[in-house]
Amino acid sequence: MTKSIKWWQKAVVYQVYPRSFQDTNGDGVGDLKGIEQRLDYIKKLGADVIWLNPVYASPDKDNGYDISDYEDINSKFGTMADFDSLLAKAHEKGIKVLMDLVVNHTSDQHRWFIESRSSKDNDKRDFYIWRDPVDGHEPNNWGSFFSGPAWKFDDKTGQYYLHLFVEGQPDLNWANPTVRESVFNMMNFWVDKGIDGFRMDVISLISKPDGLPDGEVPEGAQYGNSDKAVANGPHVHEYLKEMRQKVLNRADMMTVGEASGVNIENAVKYANQDNSELNMVFQFEHMGLDNNPNPALGKWYDKKVSLVDLKANLSKWQNHLAEKAWNSLYWDNHDQPRAVSRYGSDRPEYRVVSAKMVATLLHFMQGTPYIYQGEEIGMTNAYNLQRDDFDDVEIKNAFKYLVDKDHLVDEATMLKYVHAKGRDNARTPMQWNDSKNAGFTTGLPWLKMNDNYLTINVKNTLADPNSVFYYYQKLIRLRHELPIITTGTYQLLDPNDEQVYAYRRVSADEELLIINNFTNETITRDYQVPANATILIGNYEDDAKSTLRPYEAKVYHFVK
Ligand code: NOJ
C-alpha cells in the first residue's frame, strides 16, 4: 500500500447498543450515564472508537431507527447534557465516538412527516414519497424489509406513502434538494458538537430508482424484493459526494455506510480512496450465505454456513478492495445473531475456544474491525426467549406474516430460525456479573436476559487470564503494533478445504500465517511453517504443529 494510513484504518470499533448496555436509573433500559460509567471497561479492552446505536428522540417502533427529532435525545437514554458529558469523557480517555445516522427514513412522528401527511399541498408533502393508488392497490409490488407491503395507505389524503421498513418509518425523498439541505444541516449540528464520524443506516437505499418499477418477486413470496429493486439507485453517489462536501469534509471524520445490496463493484465507488464519498461500507454478502434456500423465507434458517462459501466471499472482498477501497470487518451487530453461536459453537466445552477462533479469523484481515458489545466475552444466542418474549418488530412481523398469514412455515420451525438468526439474540442486555439481571439493571429489563449470565459475564471473564476478553484485548494490541495487519497483502490458502480457513498476510519483509480449524474435530494439516516462525497468538497453550485441535486458531509470524 502506497497511500498514507488514516487513523480509522488502524482503529478497532466497539459497538454499543445503548438500550442494552448499562442502566443507571432502574427503568430497565440502558442509558447514556451507564455508557459513561463503563468507558473504562471499553478502554481496558483497547478499542479506539465507540459506535453508538441511535440515541435520538424516537417512539421506538424500530428501537430508535425511527427518529422523531434528530437534535434531541430519547428521554429513556437521558438528556443532551448526558450526551455532551459522555462525549467529553470519551474524548478525555482518547476514545472517539461514531453516531448512527438514520436518514433513509424518519419516524412518522417527526414534524416533517406530520406536516407532510396533513395535506397534499403542504410544503413538506414532497419530503416523503407519496403516490396515488394504482387500480385501487399499492403503487408497486415492493415488500418491506420486515415483511408485508412497503406502502401504507393514508385515508386523509387518499395516497400511499413508501416505507421500506415498518409503517412508522416513512422514506424521505432525497430527490428533493430541500430534504438534502435539511439533512446536511442536521448532520452539521452533530459535527459542531465534536463527534468523530457517522455510521450511516441503509445509506445504499436513499436514491430510489426512477419511476419506482416493480421488483422481481422471489418464488413463493408475496412481494417484490426491495433490496434488489432499490439499492444503489441512480443518484446515490451524487448525494454522498454532496454530503461529503457540505458536511464530512469539515472534520477528520470516520464514515461507514451500511449498504445492503452492495457488491464489490459498487463498494469501490462508495468507499473509494479518492475521499469523495465514504471511508468504508458494511456489506452483507457474507451475512446472506446461510439464508434459507427458499427465497420467500430470506434470512430465516438455522443451517450453518459452508466454510468454502464463506472463504470465497470474504476473500473476494479482501482481494478486490485492496488498494482501491477499504473493508469493514464484522461478524455480528445489533441486527445479527451472536458470532460464537453462528460461526463457532456455543456448547459449553467449545464456547471459549471457538469464540477466540472466530475472532482470530476476522481480526487478521485487512479492514477496520467492529466488535459488538458482549462479543468480547463470548455472549451467545438467547435460546430461552419464546415467541411472547421477543421485542423486535422484524421477528414479530416474521411470525405475523410468514407463519400466521402466509403459512410458509410452522411456528415451531420459525422459533428455531429465530433462535438462530433473530435480532433479539444480540439485543439481550449486557452480562456484567452474576447478580440479579447480570448487573445490567435494578429494575425489570426491557428485554428478557439470556439465562446464561450466571456463568457468562464480564466479572468472570476479567478474573480469568485465559478468557475471551483478554484474547480480544491482545488482538487489538497486535493490530495497533504490527503494520502488516493493516497493510499486508491477503492470500487465501486451500480455498476448497471444508474444515480449515487458512490465509497469509504478506509484506516485503515479513509474513503472517493465520490458521483456523472451523470444526470440533482434531485434524491434521501441514502448512510448511518456516523454522524461524513464532506463534503470535493462539487459543491453545502449546503448538501441536500439524495437529489442529477442535476450533484451534493460531497465527505464525516470521521474517523473510
Ligand atoms: C438497519 C439497522 O441496523 C436496523 O436495526 C434497522 O432496523 C434498519 N436499518 C432500519 O432503520
Question: What is the compact description of this entry?
Answer:
InterPro entries: GH (IPR017853), GH13_cat_dom (IPR006047), Glyco_hydro_b (IPR013780), O16G_dom_2 (IPR045857). The chain has 560 residues and is an alpha/beta fold. Helices cover 29% and strands 15% of the residues.
Would you give an account of this structure?
The longest helix is centred in the N-terminal third of the chain and has 17 residues, at 177-193. The mean pLDDT is 97. The two termini are 19 Å apart. The protein has three domains: 9-102 and 177-204 and 232-473, Glycosidases (TIM Barrel); 111-162, Oligo-1,6-glucosidase, Domain 2 (Oligo-1,6-glucosidase, domain 2), CATH 3.90.400.10; 488-559, Sandwich (Immunoglobulin-like), CATH 2.60.40. The protein is α/β, with parallel strands linked by helices. The strands form five sheets. It has an eight-stranded parallel beta sheet, covered by helices on one side. A five-stranded antiparallel beta sheet has the order 14-15-16-20-18. 29% of the residues lie in helices and 15% in strands. The chain has 17 helices and 20 strands. The radius of gyration is 23 Å and the shape is globular. The structure holds 1-deoxynojirimycin. 1-deoxynojirimycin is lined by residues 62, 65, 102, 165, 201-202, 258, 334-335.
